[in-house]
Amino acid sequence: MRIGYLLNTYPQPSVTFIRREIHALERQGLHIHRFAMRSDRSVLVDAGDLAEYDQTELVLKAGGLRLLRDLAHLTLRRPSAVARALRLAWRLGGRQPGMRLKHLIYLAEAAYVARRADALALDHIHAHFGTNPAAVAMLVRVLGGPGFSFTVHGPEEFDQPKALALGEKIAASRFAVAISSHGRSQLSRWADGADWPRLQVVHCGIDPLRFAEPAPMPDGPLHLVNIGRFVEQKGQLLLPQAVAMARAGGADLHLTLVGDGPMRAAIEAAIRDHDVADHVTLTGWQDEAGVRAILDTAHGLVLPSFAEGLPMVAMEAMAAGRIVLGTWIAGNPELILPGQTGWLVPAGDAAALARAMQDIAATPAPRLREMGQAARTRVLQRHDINQQAARLATLFEGAINR
């Protein structure tokens, strides 16, 4: 099978899970051609991302004239298809103020991808995220390109499902993927009941070979790590307050924040305001090896998120034999089992986070190691990327043979 993968920005540090999915599909014999609207090589630090950049066809890098030529070519060859696609782009763009021009650009991008898909003899297009990649994939199909599917991750797509026309995209797709049962339930809200059979759950996955021999959980005072973008939905702004409260309650702990983003200045201010500068470290973005090295020094991961899909970083921490302190949201309870593989607390509650940190600090080391091993066993059973890619490949085969 020859599959086109379609993304907005790829590669980038926050979507290494897509890279793993692609590689797992290729190991199973599928040919994957990567399309991305854009990417910024200057921000890539991981060797795997740099290698992936060289294999990715950047649509906008072709230039506006090339995209317009491809649209003109299709207009001459398939005028009725282009007319239908133009009407679709205009209608989709009308769902959000100021988005009609963007959707006309999506139409030009779709013309480029449709012609390239024909030249590459692609059997199917799979888009990641229900935003503009899924819109472009749908337009490619209307223009006469191959059938498409798409993966919805959340939480962004669930913030504006009507504006993104998720129901219409699902109806036009061969199938739509959610990464958790919670995600499928949200898609069911916006899909027609007749389209529910199109909704599939395929988990994001981890490569067991990368976690073949987890480092022993360290001795000493509690060390927790947070890994991710510094954005409002991730809730890191609560962490300095929670650390201060936990320490006031007698917990001896240190927190390391790995990542960066628009909330960094506010987080740094909170660290100063709560007087925990000696107990919180900010490392900036790290490559995969750097993240793994920091995780190896920690007892567990803390994710104070307000909104999530199903966090990959939690899977990676569990595969490394670490407990996870997360929040009762989205797909988290499908992965994190309180008292068995970690702790769950209400989102937005700094006091609850602090109490959980105190509980973790007071838990005997042998019990933490036992929970870490249970976490590893659970994630390897549920999120082996090779098993999930095999499921996705079966869905591709069924879609192509329809």
UniProtKB/TrEMBL annotation:
Q: Which domain of life is it from?
A: Bacteria
Does the keyword Signal belong to this entry? no
The record lists the organism as Paracoccus alcaliphilus
Q: What is this protein called?
A: Glycosyltransferase involved in cell wall bisynthesis
**A GO MF term:** glycosyltransferase activity
- State the UniProt keywords alphabetically: Transferase
**A Pfam entry, by short name:** Glyco_trans_1_4
